[in-house]
User: Fold these one by one.
Assistant:
Number 1:
Amino acid sequence: MLRSSWNLRFIDEGVEDFIPIASKPIPRSIKCGSFIINSKQCKGANTRMVPDSVWKESASSMNLNKKVFIGFLMFIIIPLFVLGSAVYTVSQQLIEKKYGDLTEVTLQAISRNIYYMFKEANYFSDFWMVKESIQGIYRTIDEVKPSENTLSSYDLNTFDTLLRGSILTYSPIQSVAIYNNAGKSFSAGRGGGSALPWTALTQSTAFQHIQELNGSPLWIGPSEYKEFGTGRGEFYQARLVKDFWTMDNLGFMLLKFKFNELDQIFKSFNTNEESSKRYLLINKSGLIFYDNKQNLEGANVLQLLPGKLDLQLNNNSFQANFQNEKSLISLYHLNINQMGVQDWSVVSITSWKYVAGEIETIMKLVAGITFVCLFFALVYNLVFVRRIVQLILRMLSSMKKVERGDLTTRMEESGKDETSALARGFNSLVVRVEDLLEEVKRQQDRKNKAELMLLQAQIKPHFLFNTLESINVLAIQNQGKKVSQMVYRLGNLLRIGMENREEISLKQELEHLKSYLEIQEFRFEDQFQYDIQAPPELLDYCILKLTLQPLVENSLQHGFEPIDYMGMISIKVVDEGERIALYVTDNGIGISAEKLAKFHYKTELETPFHEILGANEERRGLGVSNVADRIRIQYGAHYGMFICSQEGHGTTMKIVIPKNKGEGL
């Protein structure tokens, strides 16, 4: 009977093998079961064992050494630095405020003294300005005929004597100049020099202001107006003079003062601070017309403190660099405009070294001590804490090695403190674990050998019973020649099965399988065919004896018994790099999905495969389960067996073993 051919595709992680089978067609959607022993779900013999105890570390995790150092920075260094900075800043602000308040009190006292100085000068000029003798001079000058232009010698002498006996009796006044409305003038003074010409006076920017004050005095500081003098300490008082009786304008009076009293005023508040404190008298544009140290007169304070000093603000104090030295700057407005002093201010400049004084020294000392303490804390962290951390890290590294199975790992024992005791304890523990594992390994080896012998003992009666049953049938049928051949082949089988070696060459295993198949051909005559394909270069590699025969026996006993077509068994050996794959394929009745599901992904190493079968299936699956368990015991979790089957279409079993050659084969 002819059957259509079909292909069974076995996919193993990207490798496709097509095994031709002469039988009824099979669909591509075939369900597979496997019982490779592994701690994870497996999908092929290429699956590698991944122990649950593998040490996993995140790539972004921070080691203990860094954590300790960052903790030292965050909880010791940075808080101390922030605290020190805050204390230093607050102390600076507190010193600035306290000394600023003290300086403001001083400047108030200076302002009062300056007020009294100008008040006295105004009082003296007011007193003589209304006297008949002074006003008579203006009338006399007015009576001079235009053609004469000058006063007579008599008048000049008279006026000079009169001024010296009145206005010039006030010591700060250095000279006096009288101008009538027509520009005629007369002047007198303590020293030489001529009076300011009438033309220069009228063209001065101060002249309009003098007229607006309408008799009140206007004080002009040194260099404040370019038309007036620039001598140190020379102040000018300019005013409009009115007739005492009619209040008509008689003319103008210009008085030049030299206030030596200013030096005394500022000196009284600067007794022991000549090198640390400076006082400046300035106008509203920042012009310095008095400096107690004399070297800044004529300069502009706004240029010396660019962007720092605002004359529009109220009295205030602030820190700034003045002439490359950190200083405390205090501004105080005189507010004596009623005296004719227009928007003048006093600026106090005090060296910060003097302001902070001993406090600054103490702060620096405390800062130095703090940094020294931090340095020793850092040394302590690097020397002692780091040593402990390094011990922990070394122990962690050693534990990882032990976790990976390196029981030769030992920690260095140094010193006589608790760290060395900890290292000795770790080493002692590893030695103890190594001894225990060796003992467990020896016991496991004995257990595996005993289990392997038991499995082999299970296989021998199993196929011996089937073979003897076949010989018995032939003997009943009086087929002596076939009985002889079967006995001969049975002898070959028993010879290999009774060898003391657990592993034989693949060539011997295939010969053993061929003898078995030839015996079975007598029993299932004209009911099945077989095909063995094996590359010659793989025949010298070793395999557990009696590996293929139970699988073929399972196909014959359970796959072909109820079929009504020619059975086909294909045995194929495939080179898969570091492994060898053996495929046993039949076109029998297959395995139902329900039974196949019981084989799917066995996960417990300690559970024999046949225990997952029910009582009714245990006998039928005994040979297959023994092969699976033997491979598991002999080669480990990386190797095993797959079953792919579909009910009514056939079964493929794949065995994966390592590629190695045994000694003496």
Number 2:
Amino acid sequence: MATFLYRLGRLSFRRRALVAAVWAAVLVALGLGALTLSGQLSNSVTIPGTESQRAIDQLTEKFPQANAGGATARVVIEAPAGTTVTDAKGKAAVEALVGQLKTAPKVAAVVDPFQAQSISPDKRVALAQVSYGAKAYELTDGDREALQEPAEEARAHGFTVEFGGDAVQGIPETGATEGLGVAVAAVVLIITFGSLVAAGIPLLTALIGVGTGMGGIFLASGFLELNSNTPILALMIGLAVGIDYALFIVSRYRHELKLGRDPEEAAGRATGTAGSAVVFAGLTVIIALAGLTVVGIPFLGQMGVAAAVTVAVAVLIALTLLPAILGFAGTRVAGERIRLRRKPVETTHGERWARFVARHRIPVLLVALAGMAVVALPALGMQLGLPNDSTAAPESTQKKAYDIASRSFGEGSNGPLLVVVDAGASTNRQVALGQAASNIAKLPDVAAVTPPRVNQAGDTALLTVIPKSGPSSTQTEDLVAAIRSESGVLENATGAKLAVTGQTAANIDVSEKLSDAMLPYLALIVGLAFVLLMLVFRSVVVPLKATIGFLGSVAATFGAVVAVFQWGWLTDLLGVESTGPIMSMLPILLIGVLFGLAMDYQVFLVTRMREEHVHGAEPQEAMVTGFRHGARVVVAAALIMISVFAGFILAESALIQSIGFALAFGVLVDAFVVRMTLVPAVMSLLGRGAWWLPKWLDRILPDVDVEGEKLTKHLDAPGDDERELVGASR
């Protein structure tokens, strides 16, 4: 591996113009494709095979007039103080608004609140329901503006008009605020390298990698239905790993220049040694992200594959384009601090910290583990759910509509359940529908059941059930389960079947599916990565320690996420506008992404320790020396990742905010508590035992030479071997 990458690095260095031209052509081609062929991104969250999705498919086939799969909007109309919506002025305003809503683009039907009797007991609030013939992600900004525009006339007469539902939700976008993370990353790079040229190269290659990946994603959106969060996750991960991978190789390149190597040789050695670590670090991230495809959740699989491809691009750029750019920059990358002669070795902060940890390893271990356990405690109270209008920003029209409807009709009015009655096998369909409505009305937490709407064939009906509790409550989850359990009773009595759907039921199904998939997914990625890390470190103990440390990082991160996004701690400081249940997709997404990133630091830090060990250093000294060489770069890399992820806390979407915070906090804990504290403490405690590997397993595992031991022997020993390697790279 190291020998091949050494040759690739030298080749890219010499053929730098060609390599740069190829990557420029790829970037331009994908960019043009994205501009001309991209499609609309989706904000729908569905999982094929769930009962809610099967019911939607059934309605689409047998009752298309119901527009069950289309977007919906709830329009809340509140009369001015001292008046009602049922007096002459109020009724005229409501009817005028409903009439205008019917003419909005793509609107299939509007339920008149007077006909549906959706008037609050105090007669001050009316609730209209708008159904679209298109899905929510198919609506444009113009469609959403056309929906809300008629409200201005009613507002001018003193009425309050607010809108809720998925039809109002736009596609989340990244803004200029997320770029603050990149700016902080640039400052960290300048401080780390002391050179504008050296600091600029990782930023340049990362931006090229992200541009290539994003171009491919938007090009694919023209042919596939992609979730709107797909490019955002790819942007997050691509920026972070792109900068980090280039940082490690550039740091090694500067180290080789310091030893007196000529630039081409330095580029080859940097790619052969640090590049090998980049390959295996990238593979752990790719495994974790691509593993999201096996949990049976399409939108999550799409996000994982897109981010994994972006990481793969970052690795390829680090191994090819980066050496080419180093060829253009030459020794200017070294900056003023670097001299081409070896300077006396000075004791660094990293070495002092490593020796301190080694001397006090037991107390350090106990304090670090206790601290992580305390931070993880809030995770015991984690509640999972998907976003709805209750978690929207306080000043948004969705949140205002939710609050008015909750106050006037009860919280359940914001999350109606759609019950599909399949009466095709019933001998008396009318009796079956009546019994279905009667049985459901008797269940706990049911506020109302509307009269059934029947299709033209008379074999499928649709009931709307209004719960007493809100869409995110456990009572509503229990109600959905209770209604579904009534299906067997109804079928035995009448031959008809029940199914529950609607946005609230679909969110419950998605959350349950995500929760069930978490442990199998965790076992999958941990198992695959454990094997990969055994190949890298040729040890059983080091991968085991890395995995246990990762689980501690995840637990602490879950605790912090619950404290902020569920309990509301530090929300003003972090700019979090609303709290509520944690997004159902966040835990499994965090496990995948954080595992890959955590293994990055494990690979970069411990491979240098192993490199010293295989070159003959005693275990204790190998730990200290490896830590001294790797600590500065790992700290810089962690600060860069934290900065990039933290920039996304400023996004408008609650999901993006929570992902950004979780990844930033997770990297903070994993890099500084686990890798920079627990790792040296455990390595010092285990000594030579850290590198234990059964002899039979040692014979089976291939030697991938990540540390570049064979490469170093070939290059440092004059003779035929060196001429052969250099000649082969020409």
Number 3:
Amino acid sequence: MSSLSLLIVLFAALLIPIVMARLNITSTPTAVAEIVVGFVLGKSLLGVVTANAVLDELKSLGVIVLIFLSGMEIDFSLFKPQPASKTKQLGPAKIALLGYGAVIVAALGFAWVLDLIGLYHHIIFAAIVFSTVALGVVIAALKEKELLSQPFGQTMLLLAALGEVVPLLALTVYAELNGHASRSVWLLLLIFVAAIVLLLRFRRPYQWFAKVDKSTTQLDIRLAFFLIITLVTVAESVGAENILGAFLAGMVMKLLHPREETQDKLTSLGYGFFIPIFFIMTGAAIDLKTLLKDPTSLALIPVLLIGFFVAKVVLVPVLRLRFKPQNALAGSLLITTTITLVIPALTVGKTLGIITTQQSGAFTLAAVIACILCPILFNRLFVAEPESFKKTVVHFIGANLLTVPIAQQLAKGLYDITLFTDDPAKYKTYNSEANVKLLPSFSQGALHEAGAYDADIVMLGYFDHDKNYELAQWALANKVPRIIARFETKDATSDRYDALSNAGVEIYNTYEANIAVLRSLIETPSTLQMLTDTEAGLYEITVRNRRFTGLELKSLPFIDAITVSAIRRDGEFLSPHGDTQIHLGDHLLFTGGKTTIAEIRSTFEKEN
């Protein structure tokens, strides 16, 4: 019977996404559909799936892998101080912190009301549940609308991250303080020490793993599960919840900067096997018949649903400080989406004896209803802001006959161009021709104050090669993503140019460029026509939109209008085929019409 139950659960996990695709159900999260199917298969209706040792173990692994993947979704770059906005608007981090503070207050307030009217008496535990956010569902909704790189998406992502991290930590401390274990709450610090040790221990070996890994070893996946089991074991040893260990393992894995395909493989393994079992068995364990017969529990469901909404509606005035009123409402509804942490929290509550099976079922049903309604309402209410495709910022240091014509041509496309000069005569000559800024000197302080290094690409077009070398060093120190440096004459006895090249600086001179073009004209006669053709051209774009990662080349949009000649990945060129999978950060070299390049670039290079 145990094998039959497992077979039914796995068949249901296979069938659910197929049926949802056939019925074009896109606004309801798959996790919610799996819980609903669990209702049907379990105690509530058919009773064909019953809990057993194997399914219980797989269910436990499912929640651990789910929380681990949630930890890997945390974008730590969003917590770094952001440069002051020219419009003096509040940044995503400030709005998220202010908004989530309001959520905590509202959750505590509603939990106190429940205690006051006698429906539920554990205020802190209820507040923890009401303040949770389903990070994975929120990220999926933001990815679908390509909002992750925009201020609105970053704010929602931070709110969702706080809605998973803060309740998780609070739940762990609450369980420790209210449990029957004799361990001190200060032992919880050991799990954080263990996470830091693992991070420091595996940072360098992980980079080496990528070089020696092969299909039969999958070292990155082995490391991920080693981190999970280690931190889960440490968490349980100090009396903490295993989900805290899993979440910290995910954060450690994220800080190791895994390759995009590593996260894809872990996501495939989790959502392809373990996590569906967890959600289906969660639904199967709820006895709706008993729940609906109990008038108190039945009355609790709409009250708890109101609680989930009340705890998040306070976000509306906070989000209106930066976003449209309609989008502020849509954002607060999206953050109301909760399910992933609610169920583990309810399991902890039952272990502590502070929540009954009927109350747990009421909380779960209220969370499921919120998880169904909120993404649908968000999709209906959200209004796209004006096109926010971020232009590539290119700064030219040096305004002359070489850089000004290039700047003029690039400015007509998807580039934000600024030239810097320290020569008043050249400023007077070129100021009317391009966006030129006059600096008192090309000193490090003057360039930094002018924001010369706040760019995606810095092109050093100064004639003095010694000065260009110095400028290149300053640009490297300021971590400019791409640096192009001009050196017309080089000292053959000096290795400093090789040092710059090894550091990632792209070095060129017109003599070598002319030789390369001439050789290309001889070996490939169509080169000149390709370079001067007004209808077609040779282009390179970088895939920054995660929507296309994992897709095969033949499945990409615009593929019928372009011809991909090469893919540059991790500094090496690949010969593309129709079934070549696209990775985040791939450079696609292709030929195509000049009329479509702007749309293609905006589609693939939109950060998401």
Number 4:
Amino acid sequence: MSFRRDNITKPIFSWARGVLPAMSDTEREALEAGDVWWDADLFTGNPDWTKLLKVPPARLTDEEQAFLNGPVDELCAMLDEWKIFWEWRDLPPDVWHFVKREKFFGMIIPKEFGGLGFSPYAHSEVVRKISTRSIAAAVTVMVPNSLGPGELLMRFGTKEQQERWLPRLADGRDIPCFGLTSPEAGSDAASMIDTGIICKGNFEGREVTGLRLNWHKRYITLGPVATLLGLAFKAYDPDHLVGQQEELGITVALIPTNLPGVEIGHRHLPSMQVFQNGPNRGRDVFIPLDYVIGGKERLGQGWKMLMTALAAGRGISLPSLSAAGAAYAARTTGAYARIREQFGISISKFEGVEEPLARIVATAYQLDAARRLTCAALNAGVHPAVISGIMKLHATERMRTAVDDAMDIHGGKAVIDGPQNYIGNLHRAVPVGITVEGANILTRNLIVFGQGAIRAHPYLLDEMNALADTDRERGLTAFDTAFWKHVGHSFRTLFRAFGQSWTFGAFAMAPDAGDATPFYRQLSRYSAAFALCADMALLTLGGALKRKEMLSARFGDILSELYLLSAALKRWQDEGRQKEDFAALEWCMATGFKTIENRLAEILANLPNRFVAGFLKLVVQPFGARVLGPSDRVVHQCAGIVLEPSAARERLTPDLAHVDDDSGFARLERAFKLVASTDAIAKRMRAAHIRDWKDAIAKGVITQAEGEQLAAAHEAVTKVIEVDDFAPEALSPIYKKSGDVHQFFQELGEQRAAS
């Protein structure tokens, strides 16, 4: 062993130390934050499917279910999205009072501190349901339970801090927000210029050691109404009051917004969404050191704390909202396509409509599968950093596609705004989800694979830590162990990828999963191909791969697909292999396999080392990219899931917020049920070539009762197809004085003529 280390490994070790790019403290802290989970199995090239299938599905407790059926339903009944964003520009006072009283802001806070103590899955389910009724309300509820003071206090706060602040956050006495983004530092939050200088100062009548803070933050959700600001800044100790180091690094602290020097700005209006959001500043704000979350010992540890907390938050809030949006789009668009007729037939019969409708259905199936699987990990105490990035990125991107498809199918119904438009505001809200908690462009190009390649790879992080060890001999020994394990792993992956690619995965490992078994084989095959190509890219490019963003993005796309497809398979298994849902699973698999094969082909076409690229093509893609996507049969069957009342439709779109009022969504649900229940009657009339139900009664084709059913269905459809219109003075103050728009323009014309 020492001969190998000293004569073979040592030259490699010396070379690698010379080419290893320097890693900043923030990069290292981001890498060390959170956990790896199923992503690590996928990176091995030989995933253990038994391990995945044994993960207990996320479930609600009786108490959590009662909260959904009680306070959540009650809250949803109080919400009128049109009035919220058009008239009030805010949640009404009774809603604010209700969410505080019922502890919606304290869902994740333990019961010992006055919170509800709910699981991540319950948090996700609450956000999901509210999202289908009001985006503004959902965001208001999700933020205090995501990245913010509560999460950070629970993980890193001192006992005294927890006892002081958590009860106030739980019952709504304090409304929290978190200030991270600065005008100068958006996605690159580590370059913030907000500062905290350690110094002596007076606080509440006594001299203490503390921090004098100056900051400028923007895009801060709940900022305009917050009473407790969590703040990220860079701490400095020029007078060495706490130690010998002057630059301590990013730190997070609690700032009561009533302190002198805190300036709460006006509101932002993000994409016409009216949840509270705005800028704030601090000018020479003094706080004692015990306002630093975790106390003095946590000075400079803020970035790692934030990344750890974000690993959980990104896996819950936005994926929940996105899964809700996709399910809502599937239910409403399927219903609308079913009841809307053009050229004398339901538009759901047009293949041009079926194709985007199937995409919506399968997206809803896959996103909720991934949401549930991620929540299962979080419920088990795992905080998967890479998977959280995958979830935020792909949940919001796929929601965007689903909502765009819904808009296209609805046509003018979704374009004309008003109280009866049940999808327009969701469409407007999509860019917010794309942008916040890390821009998707950055996440795709730099984070998913850039972080995943190091964290989830079985040996790479160990090798990097060994190379960075200041004790050269200790580092060499550790590197020798990790490196040769890596070599053995690479050769095993090479032979596995070669065999599975040339046999199209026919003999790859897979569980007995009924009709889905072949899908597991293909994922095993693609996992091996991915692991081999990733290893070779890292070997040939080294640290330069970080700068090859398009290559990194393609690798990230493959890793993401492997996770999302795993989640879809897990859902199908957990739900009892429902045959009626199999078309949605098939669509997901065919589309995902197509993406994986295309990304592999793109990687091989652009890998700088052309000899290695040619070798890899021979090994992993000898016949080229062959998967074409879902067949027309699958598209037809997948779209059909939401075109009739069925158990499959309910499984796809469970527990959406539904209030039996006169809203557009409620009208649509009633019309859909009536049209479906009269389908057989309508068919008899079409067979008799009769369009008027009264004529059909007269000719004995249908009964009087059946005719009245048809009339009710027709009336319900007419109410759904209606769109809102407004008096001119209701839309613009210009017309309020004249009261008559025609008179206004006539007078305007006369004035121009006179001039």
